[in-house]
């Protein structure tokens, strides 16, 4: 379990993280989601003692990271897959990690197997690794001490679709065995298939959190009609909050039955009616974090 309580980090007059509070629970994969510069890395660095909070606390398994007796046995950390020594081979890096954490060298082959790096790949220097291979090696390094908690910053970066599926299965098994997983991403699609819970950060503050299912439910209903203007008018007249979705569809903040009834009552012929699901969640994410989007995405 990871507990973040009113965590604030200021750099001079700039507040990078502002009273952030959330919990990543054991047995769950928690996705930490936010656009570039939202404060994800700063929060994660504070969790593992690399950044001193200005105020507030971050604890892992009930203790500050610095107070854990052998952190490598309790918490696996991957903050930057490119931070490994480029001149060492993958096997050398893992062997060193086993010595630091204090586990038998035989663990290296188990780990290589776990992250699907072949013997030949493990013998190459890291400077010749693709980003995806670096991520696999980084995840293997995080797993060296068979920790209870995993903290991974953008671990899906550089992974191809098969790699993302592999990581999802690995993290799922880890959580199903009772582990706690916190992983960050600025891409909703990467995280929504993996995460059970979501914490959304924008501009240094938490803008939404809950189970993925809860957040999906708030995504509402996607509806399309032959006459979009009549549909919008009917939904608005019924007091529903609506958002444009694509060129002519509408996302309404209401359940399927309500939206269907309103359209039927107004005599509007509907051509599509479904739960807004992932696409809706993406819109919510963009709306919630709109102020922090450099590209100025409209809410
Ligand atoms: N050492 C520092 N000094 C000053 N500002 C910093 C420092 N570290 C981070 N920041 C600022 O704090 C804000 C949050 O940065 P952070 O790296 O936590 O964001 P992020 O959500 O991880 O973004 P990304 O998805 O781009 O990695 C940014 O505006 C960043 O410029």
TrEMBL record:
One of its GO terms (molecular function) is ATP hydrolysis activity. Residues 2-228 form the ABC transporter domain. Keywords: ATP-binding, Nucleotide-binding, Transport. SMART domains: AAA (SM00382). It comes from the Bacteria. Belongs to the ABC transporter superfamily. This is ATP-binding cassette domain-containing protein. It comes from Nocardioides caeni.
